[in-house]
């Protein structure tokens, strides 16, 4: 009897939170919510790069459709996974913002074909070096992860602000009272629906607020559905529509720097969503996620898209809704694929005004910051230099957020790496954590003012009222004989 092995049963087998299956309707509802949250971001990059490359409106439309399709395939690969590919976490994938400036520069020298060639070659190199990145998990303790998660939220807040103002800084109504009021109304709807006692309504608060905000915008004449019927209903991806990619050494090296930044940011997002979901992320899982990122980025140009990366705003949505199932996000990936095959559906979603997205984004992106602060609250700050690590890293990451032109006079590769607040804070946090917590040789036994700062203070006047034998127990004060001492409330006399 003592030697018998107990066979695990479905009840005793541990189930990861991300493996929860909610059913078809819930998957569709929450999946749509994920797509609506990131739709504006995923179409922004092809619009910007296409216009910079001088493409026609029809070709820019193909870039947008291709980006939706590629993002959907990448999301399914990341969430469902294949052997050695996919972290199996609720991460939405899409066109990465990190490479916009670099791709515009490359397109100006060699056209859109040079951009696609650089993306393919640099992503292949990135795929080959993922084993190195997969071993950095021990350098991402809660200290580093909390710094990065907090900075992700701070980095996204200006995006929410621009969306709330209208999205297009060249538009006459950018920053108008009507745009900001619409964003404010959407924000209010999110908060009110979140307060509703019904769990389903509360979890769908973002989606319902987007629908309600769009309806209000339509009634106020701030959105137009007339263009929904223009264009084809179904359109299959066109393989190498823009011609065969070209490969230039300088373009590939420039894009490889973007790939390095993407690897850092994706690592941060994987750790962030793992922390939010409450599941283990080891080096193997991180490596699978990074390989999925690089494979998706390498194949995306075949259909006319660019580098793929996790969308940080959807990490915030996981935190807001509490829906941790990866199958929800996989369903969202399938919806993205459908949008890529059915342009008319994409045109419907495109009618959501930017201020509506901005109102919802304030909650989503703020939640990412709050999640980072919650992680940092678990860090020990006594007798070490963790406080200065947090202060320096977040300050370093905030610089390019507050002053985007901060690195404009530096070489392009410096701008590419440090223009992102996320990569700036991540690199600084990793380096300082190594300096102070791993390579401890030379560390002073007496912490600096940052490490020695007291976390609690007691007024001397209060201390002078104590007598020998007084003690505090279960919220009450007693003297040496066990007699309770009256405690005055704060501000009492």
From TrEMBL:
Keywords noted in UniProt: Cell membrane, Membrane, Transmembrane, Transmembrane helix, Transport
Membrane-crossing segments per the record: 24-48, 60-77, 112-133, 140-160, 180-197, 204-222, 242-264, 327-346, 352-373, 385-404, 416-436
Membrane disposition: Multi-pass membrane protein
Species of origin: Paracoccus yeei
A GO MF term: xanthine transmembrane transporter activity
Entry protein name: Purine permease
Compartments in which it is found: Cell membrane
PANTHER family assigned to the protein according to its UniProt record, in alphabetical order: PURINE PERMEASE C1399.01C-RELATED, URIC ACID TRANSPORTER UACT
GO cellular component: plasma membrane
Transmembrane among keywords: yes
NCBIfam families with a match to the protein in the record: ncs2 (TIGR00801), NCS2_1 (NF037981), pbuX (TIGR03173)
Membership in a protein family: Belongs to the nucleobase:cation symporter-2 (NCS2) (TC 2.A.40) family.
């Amino acid at each position: 009897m003592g030697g018998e092995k107990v066979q695990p049963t479905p009840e005793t087998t541990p189930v990861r939170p991300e493996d929860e299956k909610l059913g078809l309707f819930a998957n569709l509802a929450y999946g749509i919510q994920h797509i609506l949250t990131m739709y504006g971001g995923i179409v922004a990059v092809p619009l910007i790069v296409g216009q910079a490359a001088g493409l026609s409106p029809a070709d820019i439309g193909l870039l947008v459709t291709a980006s939706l399709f590629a993002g959907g395939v990448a999301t399914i690969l990341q969430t469902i996974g294949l052997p050695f590919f996919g972290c199996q976490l609720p991460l939405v994938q899409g066109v990465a913002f990190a490479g916009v400036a670099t791709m515009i520069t490359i397109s100006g020298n060699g056209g859109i074909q040079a951009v696609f060639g650089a993306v393919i070659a640099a992503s292949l190199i990135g795929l080959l070096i993922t084993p190195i990145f997969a071993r950095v998990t021990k350098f991402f303790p809660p200290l580093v992860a909390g710094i990065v998660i907090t900075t992700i939220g701070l980095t996204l807040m200006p995006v929410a602000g621009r969306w709330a103002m209208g999205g297009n800084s060249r538009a006459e109504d950018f920053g108008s009272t009507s745009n900001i009021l619409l964003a404010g109304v959407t924000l209010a709807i999110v908060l009110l629906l979140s307060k509703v006692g019904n769990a389903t309504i509360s979890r769908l608060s973002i989606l319902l607020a987007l629908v309600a905000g769009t309806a209000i915008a339509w009634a106020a004449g701030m959105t137009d559905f007339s263009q929904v019927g223009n264009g084809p209903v179904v359109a299959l991806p066109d393989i190498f529509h823009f011609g065969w990619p070209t490969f230039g050494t300088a373009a590939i090296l420039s894009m490889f720097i973007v790939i390095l930044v993407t690897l850092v940011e994706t690592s941060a997002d994987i750790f962030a969503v793992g922390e939010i979901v409450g599941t283990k992320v080891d080096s193997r899982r991180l490596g699978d996620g990074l390989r999925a990122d690089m494979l998706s980025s390498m194949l995306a140009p075949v259909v006319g898209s660019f580098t793929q990366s996790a969308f940080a705003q959807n990490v915030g949505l996981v935190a807001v809704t509490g829906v941790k199932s990866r199958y929800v996000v996989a369903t969202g990936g399938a919806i993205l694929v459908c949008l890529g095959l059915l342009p008319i559906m994409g045109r419907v979603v495109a009618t959501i005004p930017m201020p509506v997205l901005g109102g919802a984004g304030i909650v989503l992106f703020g939640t990412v910051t709050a999640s980072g602060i919650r992680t940092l609250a678990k860090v020990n700050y006594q007798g070490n230099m963790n406080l200065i690590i947090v202060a320096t890293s977040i300050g370093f990451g905030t610089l390019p957020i507050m002053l985007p032109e901060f690195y404009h006079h530096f070489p392009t590769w410096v701008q590419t790496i440090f223009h992102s607040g996320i990569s700036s804070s991540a690199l600084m946090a990793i380096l300082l954590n190594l300096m102070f917590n791993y390579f401890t040789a030379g560390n002073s036994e007496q912490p600096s003012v940052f490490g020695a700062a007291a976390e609690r203070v007691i007024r001397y006047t209060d201390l002078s009222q104590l007598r020998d034998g007084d003690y505090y127990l279960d919220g009450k004060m007693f003297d040496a004989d066990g007699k309770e001492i009256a405690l005055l409330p704060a501000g009492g006399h």
